[in-house]
Amino acid sequence: MITVRNVTKHFGGIHAVDGVTLDIARGSITGLIGPNGAGKTTLFNIIAGVFPPSSGQILLDGEDVTELQSHELFHKGLLRTFQIAHEFATLTVLENLMVVPDQQPGEQLRHAWFDYRRVREVEARVAERAREVLDFLQISHLENELAGNLSGGQKKLLELGRTMMVDAKIVLLDEVGAGVNRTLLNTIATSIQRLNEERGYTFCMIEHDMDFIARLCDPVIVMAEGRLLMQGTIDEVKNDEEVIEAYLGTGRKHERQATS
Predict the structure, then answer these.
(1) Same domain, yes or no, for 191 and 99?
(2) Do 77 and 125 fall into the same domain?
(3) Angle, nearest 10°, between helix axes 182-199 and 152-163?
(4) On the CB side of 214, how many CA atoms lie within 13 Å of its CA?
(5) Domain encompassing residue 138
(6) Would you call 207 exposed, middle or buried from its count of C-beta atoms within 10 A (0-12, 13-18, 19+)?
(7) What Rg, from alpha-carbon coordinates, does the chain have?
(8) What does the pLDDT look like over 130-162, one tens digit per residue?
(9) CATH number, domain with residue 25
(10) 211 and 201 in one domain?
(11) pTM of the predicted model, to two decimals?
(12) Bridge partners of 31?
């Protein structure tokens, strides 16, 4: 579904992403891991159209989308969430979902004035869909709560819910589990699995929680110092010497050799 071909991104003399080539298969939940500063979020930003690569190419379903911006990719079904949730704090949870679908007639003044019945009908359909999303995510009880009052985990669920308000093809999840308690983390993981299995969502996620990655992701892609280090199953990744060295340093590698 997503093909990244020899992508680089330079910020002055810093090579944040350095010649990365990878594929994200349709229907997969792909994990993207690596130590801090590995270039993971920069790569996400390039794929999501936040900024273009210095060189290389991004393909979505075989179409070159390298130069497209985030709002253009949104219309093609590519969405992303953020490590720090970007909710509308003064709107309710329901309203946060309802603002996602674009081209609603109520957004245009002439419809609001002269076609009020149509505006109300569309709003009712969008509200119904939003309530179905809340029910799917098991947060219906928060419908009328201001989004700014939610816990960190609830805000991550709300961000996931916003991707369900449009016809998403692929969702990039940036540390969806960061700072989330175990109960809500389990709810988030179950929701991701259901969206993948029942609705055909493709996911790629940056995550540091290896248990969370192990539960959800196959394959797992490892980056270090802006480069692709390896790709494989979670067991292959956890037992790879280069990965161990990138995360833990040569001391752990030598320790393992000494005890083997």
Answers:
(1) no
(2) no
(3) 10
(4) 7
(5) 88-149
(6) buried
(7) 20
(8) 999 999 999 999 999 999 999 988 999 999 998
(9) 3.40.50.300
(10) yes
(11) 0.83
(12) 205, 220
